[in-house]
Write a structure and sequence with these properties.
246 residues; alpha+beta; BirA Bifunctional Protein, domain 2; SH3 type barrels; 2 domains; 7-stranded mixed sheet; 5 helices; 24% helix; binds biotin
Length: 246
Protein backbone atom coordinates (compact mmCIF):
# COMPACT_ATOMS: atom_id res chain seq x y z
CA UNK A 1 0.00 0.00 0.00
CA UNK A 2 1.29 3.45 -0.91
CA UNK A 3 -1.69 5.79 -0.48
CA UNK A 4 -2.83 5.54 3.13
CA UNK A 5 0.37 3.90 4.41
CA UNK A 6 0.72 6.77 6.89
CA UNK A 7 -2.11 8.88 8.34
CA UNK A 8 -1.61 12.26 10.01
CA UNK A 9 -4.69 13.67 11.75
CA UNK A 10 -5.23 17.25 12.92
CA UNK A 11 -8.46 18.29 14.66
CA UNK A 12 -8.60 21.57 12.73
CA UNK A 13 -6.36 23.18 10.13
CA UNK A 14 -6.54 26.27 7.92
CA UNK A 15 -6.21 23.93 4.92
CA UNK A 16 -4.84 20.38 4.62
CA UNK A 17 -3.05 21.34 1.38
CA UNK A 18 -1.38 24.40 2.92
CA UNK A 19 -0.38 22.41 6.00
CA UNK A 20 1.01 19.56 3.91
CA UNK A 21 3.16 22.01 1.92
CA UNK A 22 4.73 23.28 5.15
CA UNK A 23 5.13 19.75 6.59
CA UNK A 24 6.91 18.68 3.40
CA UNK A 25 9.35 21.59 3.71
CA UNK A 26 10.36 20.53 7.23
CA UNK A 27 10.02 16.73 7.22
CA UNK A 28 10.65 13.71 5.07
CA UNK A 29 7.07 12.53 4.68
CA UNK A 30 6.70 9.08 3.19
CA UNK A 31 4.92 8.77 -0.14
CA UNK A 32 1.21 8.09 0.28
CA UNK A 33 0.92 9.97 3.58
CA UNK A 34 -2.63 11.27 4.07
CA UNK A 35 -2.98 14.48 6.06
CA UNK A 36 -6.59 14.90 7.19
CA UNK A 37 -8.74 17.05 9.42
CA UNK A 38 -12.26 17.47 10.76
CA UNK A 39 -12.44 21.16 9.91
CA UNK A 40 -10.69 23.68 7.67
CA UNK A 41 -10.96 27.40 8.45
CA UNK A 42 -9.53 28.34 5.05
CA UNK A 43 -10.26 25.36 2.80
CA UNK A 44 -9.08 26.20 -0.68
CA UNK A 45 -10.55 25.40 -4.08
CA UNK A 46 -9.47 26.31 -7.59
CA UNK A 47 -9.36 29.93 -8.74
CA UNK A 48 -9.29 31.32 -5.20
CA UNK A 49 -12.64 29.69 -4.32
CA UNK A 50 -13.27 28.55 -0.76
CA UNK A 51 -14.14 24.94 0.05
CA UNK A 52 -17.08 24.71 2.42
CA UNK A 53 -17.30 21.80 4.86
CA UNK A 54 -19.13 21.59 8.20
CA UNK A 55 -17.18 20.26 11.24
CA UNK A 56 -16.94 16.43 11.39
CA UNK A 57 -19.14 15.80 8.37
CA UNK A 58 -16.91 15.20 5.37
CA UNK A 59 -13.53 13.95 4.19
CA UNK A 60 -10.91 16.70 3.94
CA UNK A 61 -7.60 15.17 2.96
CA UNK A 62 -4.29 15.84 1.26
CA UNK A 63 -2.16 13.02 -0.14
CA UNK A 64 1.60 13.29 -0.54
CA UNK A 65 2.90 11.80 -3.79
CA UNK A 66 6.33 11.69 -5.42
CA UNK A 67 5.39 10.85 -9.01
CA UNK A 68 8.89 11.28 -10.46
CA UNK A 69 8.04 8.55 -13.03
CA UNK A 70 5.62 10.97 -14.72
CA UNK A 71 6.88 13.56 -17.15
CA UNK A 72 5.74 17.07 -16.17
CA UNK A 73 4.05 17.35 -19.59
CA UNK A 74 1.94 14.28 -18.66
CA UNK A 75 1.04 15.41 -15.15
CA UNK A 76 -2.67 15.50 -15.97
CA UNK A 77 -2.59 11.71 -15.48
CA UNK A 78 -2.47 12.40 -11.73
CA UNK A 79 -5.87 14.17 -11.50
CA UNK A 80 -7.23 11.54 -13.91
CA UNK A 81 -6.19 8.70 -11.57
CA UNK A 82 -7.39 10.56 -8.45
CA UNK A 83 -10.78 11.33 -10.06
CA UNK A 84 -11.24 7.67 -10.97
CA UNK A 85 -10.31 6.54 -7.45
CA UNK A 86 -12.99 8.84 -6.01
CA UNK A 87 -15.53 7.48 -8.52
CA UNK A 88 -14.58 3.89 -7.57
CA UNK A 89 -15.26 4.79 -3.94
CA UNK A 90 -18.59 6.53 -4.66
CA UNK A 91 -19.87 3.73 -6.85
CA UNK A 92 -19.80 1.41 -3.85
CA UNK A 93 -22.77 3.44 -2.57
CA UNK A 94 -24.48 5.00 -5.61
CA UNK A 95 -25.05 3.69 -9.14
CA UNK A 96 -22.93 6.21 -11.04
CA UNK A 97 -20.95 9.43 -10.96
CA UNK A 98 -19.18 11.54 -13.53
CA UNK A 99 -16.08 13.68 -13.83
CA UNK A 100 -16.74 17.25 -14.84
CA UNK A 101 -13.57 18.23 -16.68
CA UNK A 102 -10.98 18.77 -15.44
CA UNK A 103 -11.56 17.15 -12.05
CA UNK A 104 -14.84 17.91 -10.30
CA UNK A 105 -16.78 14.85 -9.28
CA UNK A 106 -20.45 15.07 -10.12
CA UNK A 107 -23.53 13.00 -9.38
CA UNK A 108 -26.27 13.98 -11.81
CA UNK A 109 -25.82 17.77 -12.02
CA UNK A 110 -24.38 18.28 -8.53
CA UNK A 111 -20.83 18.42 -7.20
CA UNK A 112 -19.94 15.87 -4.54
CA UNK A 113 -16.15 16.24 -4.54
CA UNK A 114 -13.45 18.70 -5.52
CA UNK A 115 -9.78 18.04 -6.11
CA UNK A 116 -6.94 20.54 -5.72
CA UNK A 117 -3.66 19.22 -7.12
CA UNK A 118 -0.53 21.22 -6.32
CA UNK A 119 2.78 20.02 -7.74
CA UNK A 120 6.33 21.22 -7.41
CA UNK A 121 8.22 20.75 -10.67
CA UNK A 122 11.97 21.29 -10.70
CA UNK A 123 13.64 21.14 -14.10
CA UNK A 124 12.06 18.23 -15.90
CA UNK A 125 10.98 16.35 -12.79
CA UNK A 126 7.89 16.39 -10.59
CA UNK A 127 9.46 16.68 -7.14
CA UNK A 128 6.21 16.29 -5.21
CA UNK A 129 2.47 16.46 -5.65
CA UNK A 130 -0.12 17.24 -3.04
CA UNK A 131 -3.51 15.89 -4.03
CA UNK A 132 -6.16 17.63 -1.95
CA UNK A 133 -9.63 16.12 -1.88
CA UNK A 134 -12.82 17.44 -0.36
CA UNK A 135 -15.49 14.73 -0.48
CA UNK A 136 -18.96 15.49 0.88
CA UNK A 137 -20.19 12.57 2.96
CA UNK A 138 -22.64 13.45 5.75
CA UNK A 139 -23.34 17.19 5.30
CA UNK A 140 -27.03 17.95 4.77
CA UNK A 141 -27.11 21.74 4.39
CA UNK A 142 -24.70 23.86 2.40
CA UNK A 143 -24.34 27.63 2.37
CA UNK A 144 -22.77 27.81 -1.09
CA UNK A 145 -25.79 26.69 -3.10
CA UNK A 146 -24.37 28.45 -6.16
CA UNK A 147 -21.81 25.66 -6.40
CA UNK A 148 -24.58 23.01 -6.52
CA UNK A 149 -23.12 20.87 -3.70
CA UNK A 150 -24.39 17.43 -2.76
CA UNK A 151 -23.27 14.72 -0.33
CA UNK A 152 -23.62 10.94 -0.06
CA UNK A 153 -26.08 11.52 2.79
CA UNK A 154 -28.28 13.78 0.64
CA UNK A 155 -28.19 11.23 -2.18
CA UNK A 156 -28.93 8.09 -0.19
CA UNK A 157 -30.53 9.29 3.05
CA UNK A 158 -27.96 7.28 5.01
CA UNK A 159 -25.19 8.45 7.32
CA UNK A 160 -21.66 7.10 6.96
CA UNK A 161 -18.77 6.27 9.27
CA UNK A 162 -15.99 8.73 8.34
CA UNK A 163 -12.96 6.62 9.42
CA UNK A 164 -14.32 3.66 7.38
CA UNK A 165 -14.85 5.97 4.40
CA UNK A 166 -11.29 7.30 4.69
CA UNK A 167 -9.93 3.77 4.80
CA UNK A 168 -11.94 2.69 1.74
CA UNK A 169 -11.14 5.84 -0.23
CA UNK A 170 -7.41 5.34 0.50
CA UNK A 171 -7.62 1.77 -0.83
CA UNK A 172 -9.48 2.85 -3.99
CA UNK A 173 -7.03 5.70 -4.67
CA UNK A 174 -4.07 3.42 -4.04
CA UNK A 175 -5.27 0.98 -6.74
CA UNK A 176 -5.52 3.80 -9.29
CA UNK A 177 -2.10 5.24 -8.37
CA UNK A 178 -0.55 1.78 -8.73
CA UNK A 179 -2.11 1.52 -12.20
CA UNK A 180 -0.15 4.66 -13.12
CA UNK A 181 3.07 3.30 -11.61
CA UNK A 182 2.60 0.07 -13.59
CA UNK A 183 2.46 2.12 -16.79
CA UNK A 184 -1.26 1.58 -17.43
CA UNK A 185 -1.85 5.24 -18.17
CA UNK A 186 -3.70 4.39 -21.42
CA UNK A 187 -6.34 2.52 -19.42
CA UNK A 188 -6.58 5.38 -16.91
CA UNK A 189 -7.14 7.84 -19.74
CA UNK A 190 -9.80 5.67 -21.46
CA UNK A 191 -11.74 5.21 -18.24
CA UNK A 192 -11.41 8.91 -17.38
CA UNK A 193 -12.77 9.95 -20.78
CA UNK A 194 -15.63 7.45 -20.59
CA UNK A 195 -16.73 8.93 -17.26
CA UNK A 196 -16.71 12.56 -18.41
CA UNK A 197 -19.77 14.61 -17.54
CA UNK A 198 -21.64 15.56 -20.73
CA UNK A 199 -19.39 13.44 -22.99
CA UNK A 200 -20.64 13.40 -26.59
CA UNK A 201 -23.78 15.39 -25.85
CA UNK A 202 -24.58 18.80 -27.27
CA UNK A 203 -24.48 21.52 -24.61
CA UNK A 204 -23.67 25.19 -24.27
CA UNK A 205 -20.20 26.35 -23.28
CA UNK A 206 -18.79 29.80 -22.66
CA UNK A 207 -15.47 30.31 -24.46
CA UNK A 208 -13.28 33.36 -24.92
CA UNK A 209 -15.39 34.45 -27.92
CA UNK A 210 -18.75 33.88 -26.23
CA UNK A 211 -21.36 31.15 -25.81
CA UNK A 212 -21.46 28.27 -28.30
CA UNK A 213 -23.02 24.83 -28.61
CA UNK A 214 -20.56 21.99 -28.65
CA UNK A 215 -19.92 18.44 -27.57
CA UNK A 216 -16.96 16.98 -25.72
CA UNK A 217 -15.05 14.43 -27.80
CA UNK A 218 -12.10 13.63 -25.57
CA UNK A 219 -9.29 15.03 -23.43
CA UNK A 220 -5.65 15.06 -24.57
CA UNK A 221 -2.75 13.75 -22.46
CA UNK A 222 -1.91 17.35 -21.58
CA UNK A 223 -5.40 17.74 -20.08
CA UNK A 224 -6.80 19.98 -22.81
CA UNK A 225 -10.43 19.24 -23.66
CA UNK A 226 -11.45 18.65 -27.28
CA UNK A 227 -14.84 20.07 -28.24
CA UNK A 228 -16.63 19.81 -31.57
CA UNK A 229 -18.83 22.69 -32.69
CA UNK A 230 -22.05 22.40 -34.69
CA UNK A 231 -20.18 23.40 -37.87
CA UNK A 232 -17.85 20.40 -37.45
CA UNK A 233 -14.87 22.47 -36.28
CA UNK A 234 -12.91 20.86 -33.41
CA UNK A 235 -11.00 23.01 -30.90
CA UNK A 236 -8.90 22.27 -27.83
CA UNK A 237 -9.17 24.29 -24.65
CA UNK A 238 -7.06 24.55 -21.52
CA UNK A 239 -8.54 24.97 -18.05
CA UNK A 240 -10.10 28.44 -17.64
CA UNK A 241 -10.38 28.93 -21.42
CA UNK A 242 -13.81 27.38 -21.34
CA UNK A 243 -16.70 27.10 -18.91
CA UNK A 244 -19.67 24.75 -18.81
CA UNK A 245 -23.05 26.46 -18.80
CA UNK A 246 -24.94 24.42 -16.26
C1 LIG B 1 -12.30 22.70 -6.08
O1 LIG B 1 -13.29 22.06 -6.43
O2 LIG B 1 -12.17 23.89 -6.35
C2 LIG B 1 -11.22 21.98 -5.31
C3 LIG B 1 -11.60 21.82 -3.86
C4 LIG B 1 -10.57 21.07 -3.07
C5 LIG B 1 -10.89 21.04 -1.59
C6 LIG B 1 -9.94 20.19 -0.81
S1 LIG B 1 -10.46 19.96 0.85
C7 LIG B 1 -8.92 19.27 1.27
C8 LIG B 1 -7.86 20.06 0.53
N1 LIG B 1 -7.44 21.20 1.29
C9 LIG B 1 -7.80 22.35 0.75
O3 LIG B 1 -7.63 23.49 1.22
N2 LIG B 1 -8.45 22.12 -0.41
C10 LIG B 1 -8.50 20.70 -0.70
Amino acid sequence: MIIGSNLLFFETLPSTNTHTVSLLKKNNLQEGTIVYTNYQSEGRGYSGNKWESEVDKNLLISIVLFPSFINPSDQFFIPMAISLGICDFLMRFIPDCHIKWPNDIYVNNDKIAGILIESSVIGNKIESTIAGIGLNINQEKFKSYALNPVSLRLLTGMSYDLPACLNQLGTDLDKRYKQLIAGNSGQIKNEYVSKLYRLNEWFEFRGIKGVFTGRILTVGDSGRIKIEMKNGEISEYAFKEIEFIL
